[in-house]
TrEMBL record:
Gene3D superfamilies: 3.30.70.20. The keyword Transport applies. One of its GO terms (cellular component) is plasma membrane. One of its GO terms (molecular function) is metal ion binding. It comes from Desulfitobacterium metallireducens DSM 15288. The keyword Flavoprotein does not apply. The chain crosses the membrane at residues 7-30, 111-131, 143-158, 178-197, 234-258, 270-295. This is 4Fe-4S ferredoxin. Keywords: 4Fe-4S, Electron transport, Iron, Iron-sulfur, Membrane, Metal-binding, Transmembrane, Transmembrane helix, Transport. Residues 318-347, 348-374 form the 4Fe-4S ferredoxin-type domain. It comes from the Bacteria.
Length: 374
């Protein structure tokens, strides 16, 4: 059965509107907020002020100032900065870094993060088993995508996500001069998952990636090879060049002008509508509309984790592979693949595009020559 164009449009609008409305409803219940907390860049500090005076003058906790200035002996609390050999500039920087770290920690909800990681693990393990056993079907894929963005996005919110581990790691260091250990650990975990199973986090667990993918599936006929509206496979050279340029633009602006340009257009804020900006709304709408005709445009053109993860994909333990002894070169796997990935894998290109392990190629192969394996 084929979808109609009006059916696709209505399904698209319904998906986007319901995602926004339900996300807004959930954030109103649980208190949606921005994870970004502003910290003053300068404080009232002078060389003749003691640690206790700095704390009182700037309305800061004494322990915060003490830890920031690395004061261990109680007797040093009554000493001036001059006596402690700490300059005004260094004191300002040390206090700012400490407050930034405290702000990062204060915005995190360990219980929520734990629940989300458990759900991610369940989704990925279930998908991994299905891929290994060749139990993937278009309907299975669609239901898994729906579960992914509803559970980990609409219900559990925009944060954490793999993209932000890269974005916030760079921006925190470039703008605030800090490295937040929990975020670094999360980034390492996500990259290890890419190493174990090719882009599995992105393909089956990422809330915004799943939303894009779900919208792309809306525009596909029942044969899952063609779109109702014509779908395009952008050459990898084009998409990856744009992604590399965007990544270096993001990093450069963060270091040179202390500005996080991704935060302005962060597409994950669709799951926390209370913090959406005008630019964010326009950009998200553009990405979601583009998702009807281009497979995961945010992931291929802009996502910093997508770029970093792509560098690790080549070394992934489990990935899509072709048994060329039984392959009959019918090209069905390449046609079914929503991107240029399968064509590159089939032709044994040294440089391959992002593969999200969606399993479309496995479904399409008539000789079972395409497998997800070591």
């Amino acid at each position: 059965m084929k979808n109609s164009r009006w059916g696709v449009i209505l399904s698209f609008l319904g998906t986007v509107i319901l995602t926004l409305v339900l996300s807004l409803f959930v954030t109103q219940i649980f208190g949606g907020h921005s994870e970004k907390v502003s910290v003053p860049k300068t404080f009232s500090v002078s060389l003749d002020m003691t640690v206790s005076e700095i704390s009182a003058t700037n309305n800061l906790k004494l322990d915060t100032v003490k830890d920031a200035l690395k004061i261990k002996e109680p007797a040093n609390l009554s000493k001036t900065l001059a006596e402690l050999n700490i300059s005004e500039k260094d004191a300002n920087e040390m206090i700012t870094k400490k407050l930034n770290l405290e702000a990062e920690e204060a915005t995190k909800n360990p219980a929520l993060i734990g629940i989300k990681f458990i759900i991610w693990a369940v989704l990925m393990i279930y998908a991994f088993i299905a891929l290994r056993r060749r139990k993937i079907t278009p309907q299975f894929r669609k239901y898994m995508l729906l579960a992914s963005f509803i559970l980990t996005g609409v219900i559990l919110g925009s944060e954490p996500n793999a993209m932000s581990t890269v974005k916030d790691f760079v921006s925190a260091y470039a703008i605030k001069g800090i490295i937040f250990p929990p975020r670094l650990v999360a980034l390492i975990v996500f990259l290890l998952l890419v190493f174990v199973a090719n882009k599995f986090t992105c393909g089956w667990a990422c809330q915004f990636g799943s939303l894009q993918d779900f919208i792309f599936q809306i525009d596909r006929n029942s044969d899952k090879k063609k779109g109702v509206f014509r779908q395009y496979k952008v050459p990898f050279l084009v998409s990856n060049t744009i992604r590399i340029l965007f990544f270096f633009l993001f990093v450069s602006i963060a270091f040179l002008w202390s500005l996080d340009i991704i935060e302005i257009i962060n597409p994950f804020t669709i799951f926390n509508p209370t913090v959406l900006t005008g630019a964010g709304i326009l950009f998200i709408l553009f990405i979601l509309v583009a998702s009807l005709i281009i497979y995961r445009p945010w992931c291929h053109f802009f996502c910093p984790f997508g770029f970093v993860g792509w560098g690790i994909e080549k070394f992934s333990l489990y990935k899509i592979k072709v048994n060329h002894d039984t392959c009959i070169d019918c090209g069905e796997c390449s046609k079914a693949c929503p991107s240029m990935a399968m064509e590159a894998i089939l032709k044994r290109h040294r440089v391959t595009p992002d593969c999200f392990s969606c399993g479309s190629c496995i479904i399409a192969c008539p000789t079972k020559s395409v497998e997800f394996k070591k």
